[in-house]
Amino acid sequence: MSTIVVAEIGINHNGDMDIVERLIQIAAATGCDYVKFQKRTPEICVPEAMKSKPKQTPWGTMTYLEYRNRVELTEEQYKTIDKLCEKFGISWFASAWDTEAARFLASVGRHIVKIPSAKLTDHTLLSMCRGWFDTVVLSTGMSTQEEIDRAVEIAQPDYLLHTHSAYPAPVDELDLTYMLELNRRYKSLVGYSGHEYGLVPTFAAVALGASMVERHITLDRSMWGSDQQCSVEPGGLFKLVSGIRAVELAIAPKHSAGSESCDRVLWPSEQPKRDALRG
Hints:
By secondary structure, the protein is an alpha/beta fold.
């Protein structure tokens, strides 16, 4: 089974539908399976102490709550996203940051939902998402083993994504082999959500068996926004998807005659060199 590649647009659109369209088109052209957004109800998600704090933005100084509402996509904009994804031949889903956001995503016909690492301990949200969606994806960043155990018990996720929640994530803290432990402990399919600079660790995650890979994408890492610097630009996204497919082929080549044997295969392409060097 091919690794599912999710291009996380997240909030890198900065509320601009032209940027949304360009990123959807790029993700589709590079062969991604999904684009993903983040859905919040700011009045619920933003802590009271943060709501009135001033925020410097490209649109001027505003409160943090005003900023969150400024970059939140509307129902009409999600209808446009539906049409754009149909046009370019790609699917979309979103992370639900609160129960109202989850309710909205279910109401617009999403069958898959992501629960972000930040909400792993929101047991009400976990339970609702399991009841409302066919496929639940859960990220495990910034969490203890006990918290993950409890979240998995409640959400019964279809995909469990290993991740490091620093932006960018230090490569020497990625601990990719923990994916093997997730696979041992739970029945969920295991994947990887990467926030590191570069692509190599993501390729390594695929080699370790990631069933789903998620990376933030952007038009330009120098754009304004908290997630831009650890995102993948269009050229990098092409390299990411083509590299993932190459890793898959290298790990599981199609053996002659469909053999399931673990014996070393003598490939037809090797025969000329064998004849030349061995006589």
